[in-house]
């Protein structure tokens, strides 16, 4: 493309070339972003949101009736979960599982294996630096489900 110089007229061909280059850039960026969005989409949270909303209040009431609180920490390659009852006493859960992964994609998802160590549940898991999320699910002896999302920020 020929450089514009002072005193040279801008022709219709030059304006067309500039306009086409501008729109080609916009379209290329949009296609790239759409492709990346589709490739990293992990899927739906629930199959049917209406059905999920119908059981939400019932599940929340059951979980609140347990009276559990959960704190977590990650240090030295260990993820530690501390379940406590209303009086602050340690709680032993019947079953415990979770999916640990990045908040934006499912490629690094993993399922840590927790073991009771004293009053807490501990899993050995090596997490690279960055933001992580765990979808945790625990059950009491009666089968009541306790679930919570835990956010972790792993420093270098």
Question: Would you kindly provide a written description of the structure presented here, covering whatever features stand out?
Answer:
The chain folds into 2 domains: 9-41; 49-154, Immunoglobulin-like. Helices cover 30% and strands 32% of the residues. It contains 2 helices and 7 strands, in the order ααβββββββ. It has helices at residues 12-40, 49-66, and strands at residues 69-75, 78-84, 95-102, 115-117, 120-124, 130-139, 145-154. The protein has a 4-stranded antiparallel beta sheet with strand order 1-2-5-4, with no helix packed on it. Strands 3-6-7 form a 3-stranded antiparallel beta sheet. The longest helix is centred in the N-terminal third of the chain and has 29 residues, at 12-40. It is elongated. The chain starts with 11 loop residues before the first helix and ends with a strand.
Task: Please summarize what this structure is.
By secondary structure, this protein is of the alpha+beta class. It contains two helices and seven strands.
Radius of gyration: 26 Å
Q: Approximately how much helix is present in the residues?
A: 25-40%
Low-confidence stretches: none
Order of helices and strands: HHEEEEEEE
Given helix and strand content, the structural type is: alpha+beta
Number of domains: 2
Provide the CATH architecture of the largest domain: Sandwich
Gross morphology = elongated
Percent of residues in beta strands? 25-35%
How many H/I helices?
2
- What would CATH call the class of the largest domain? Mainly Beta
Largest sheet: 4 strands, antiparallel
How far is the N terminus from the C terminus?
Answer: 48 Å
What is the overall pLDDT average?
A: 90
CATH overall fold name of the largest domain: Immunoglobulin-like
